[in-house]
Amino acid sequence: xxxxxxxxxxxxxxxxxxxxxxxxxxxxxxxxxxxxxxxxxxxxxxxxxxxxxxxxxxxxxxxxxxxxxxxxxxxxxxxxxxxxxxxxxxxxxxxxxxxxxxxxxxxxxxxxxxxxxxxxxxxxxxxxxxxxxxxxxxxxxxxxxxxxxxxxxxxxxxxxxxxxxxxxxxxxxxxxxxxxxxxxxxxxxxxxxxxxxxxxxxxxxxxxxxxxxxxxxxxxxxxxxxxxxxxxxxxxxxxxxxxxxxxxxxxxxxxx
Amino acid sequence: xxxxxxxxxxxxxxxxxxxxxxxxxxxxxxxxxxxxxxxxxxxxxxxxxxxxxxxxxxxxxxxxxxxxxxxxxxxxxxxxxxxxxxxxxxxxxxxxxxxxxxxxxxxxxxxxxxxxxxxxxxxxxxxxxxxxxxxxxxxxxxxxxxxxxxxxxxxxxxxxxxxxxxxxxxxxxxxxxxxxxxxxxxxxxxxxxxxxxxxxxxxxxxxxxxxxxxxxxxxxxxxxxxxxxxxxxxxxxxxxxxxxxxxxxxxxxxxxxxxxxxxxxxxxxxxxxxxxxxxxxxxxxxxxxxxxxxxxxxxxxxxxxxxxxxxxxxxxxxxxxxxxxxxxxxxxxxx
Amino acid sequence: xxxxxxxxxxxxxxxxxxxxxxxxxxxxxxxxxxxxxxxxxxxxxxxxxxxxxxxxxxxxxxxxxxxxxxxxxxxxxxxxxxxxxxxxxxxxxxxxxxxxxxxxxxxxxxxxxxxxxxxxxxxxxxxxxxxxxxxxxxxxxxxxxxxxxxxxxxxxxxxxxxxxxxxxxxxxxxxxxxxxxxxxxxxxxxxxxxxxxxxxxxxxxxxxxxxxxxxxxxxxxxxxxxxxxxxxxxxxxxxxxxxxxxxxxxxxxxxxxxxxxxxxxxxxxxxxxxxxxxxxxxxxxxxxxxxxxxx
Lengths: 256, 335, 295
Hints:
By secondary structure, chain A is α/β, with parallel strands linked by helices. Chain A has helices spanning 47-55, 77-82, 100-105, 116-121, 123-144, 159-171, 192-204, 216-222, 240-245, 247-255; strands at 7-18, 21-32, 36-40, 62-67, 70-71, 85-88, 177-181, 208-212, 226-230, 233-238.
């Protein structure tokens, strides 16, 4: 494992098994600040499990996950999110029977106006703040070129559009770390470049991103470094061309 | 208008208010947040019992033929407020125990079983709420302020019920169409997604469980004080599903929709059944009410799951533009 | 001591009835992933079919056989005509539970409208009491236990040895994979519903025999105890259901003998609640773990 001078996330000896099946075994890795790291490997390598543990959806059997020095291993998902980590899911986790704008509004960090007390105190309490959030959301929609869909139910969108909304929602809280689990899943060929462009822009703006993706071309274009997982272990962490040349990696992809 | 007709109208009005309040309570849990509370009737029952024991006075009075806990004679409206607090408390307890990371239908099973257990426990523990005989001779609330004619008492109570319903209605509107309401719908739509946004789904569920519990208890308290009696036969576990039907038929998540559903399914069905050509055997009539309720649920889930008055779409964008069809947009911009 | 033995005897009979029913319930759940709360209604209706045949003079055991067939067909019909269409319509898990409850309510109350609220009994002599290793059981009770052993044994064997049985196990573990491997999904599911209905019917008649008097809602009232047994053993595991039935049957009867007979069912339910909260996958099932916690 190569250590980087300024890691945002350091994972040590992470492990998870399900009744005898070792999904993840002593995985250690570090994510450099401001990087767009690719997490790749054959099916069943444990990539989603690692992501799930970092994001707090899966409880690790052991190991530490340090975000900016603070151990977040074992914390529930919503607490991890509050520490500045957001994630997307293979099946876009948008809120179907709510409009795109409402989806984005739920992306802002939890705020006082969302409480029962505020609701009962009346619109005046939260109207102004909501307006500001709406402004932010609408300009984000502008950027995503989805403005015309602002009042459309998210459930009616195409796969790619849902993904854009999901990433947009994640962007609303200006997170420190964004975890993208197969963002290209279910995305049409027309929208794929848009999403790829968006991810590249995020990196340029200084966001730290970890990306699980099967399409290796995309990984090669965007990601540096790249972490290869196979059968629950880290095979290597480095650049994409190093990975291509590595014999262990080639074997894993052929066999796994 | 004859006294009998007056009483009949008063009864209908009270039942409508009670059913609407109760259905709203379930709506905030199930319609808005997606919690399958299959023990809902338990909270209405608890509210009814608590209101009763807070107005009946000591159990040894009246010849001591009823046995129950506590036994105070609090002035109106304290028994009802007490009932709401008790309902909220019970909901907090049940919610803390059951609202864990269980698959939703397993969770629903636990609640169903709790409802059944409660019936058995109350029926067999006479000292609790007088067992299967239940409580009776619950005094009409106006009684505590002085003696009025029977009619005045009744109409006063009807007025009070309507007032309660209006207040609860305002409460529901405030809650559902607020950022908090948005959060609840997020929990309903995609729990993993809402957690990824830093919000705890379990906490939100617990909150609506308590709110719904209080509303259910309020409806129970009003019902018990009006009828003057309350027994286990009023709250067998299938009763919960009448409220589910009301919410589904009226419109999940829609405040006005659920109110309509409650009036139709609660009171409407009960009245309509009497006009069917099936005779007047009470068992058959009661069975027919259940059959119609079940058929309504199936029909609406099949044809119109969003209900009669569906949840409104919130149009929040400020600049008015024609809403484009999603695929047309893709084609137009070339993205 | 003899009180204990006699309670244990009752427990074994209850366990037998529970085993038949719980296996039926859990088998269908494992294959279709639907919590069928109309199961109790199928039990009741089949029990009444046996009653009417019995009233016409048919021996109760033969009536049970006919009722078993009716139960299977009824269960199959409910799935083909109601559940299947709703599932294909896109209704999710929440909705399906409500659908099954509605079907149960409609069935129970339709039956009640027809037969009324009275209590009914079979025309079936209990038979001579037999002393078997200290247990005193009537001929009727022995036959019930025998049927339970045979039926649950057959189900177990069928699941392991027959192609349909293996297909069912495949569907329950990994539906997508099973479909991909060319399993005739619709047919296997139909068979599962039919078998589940047969077991519900036999369980229903056995239940009515055991408790002597029954009404139009008896089956649905018993359903919760069945769910307790199935969940205890691990929903979706027929073997677990049998063990769960034994535990629930014996614990409730022994508890009733030594504690308060009225609270007999509370014991079963208390066990169920604790199990669901502490270990929702039940005591025996690996598969049920994912099901219980997944969304």
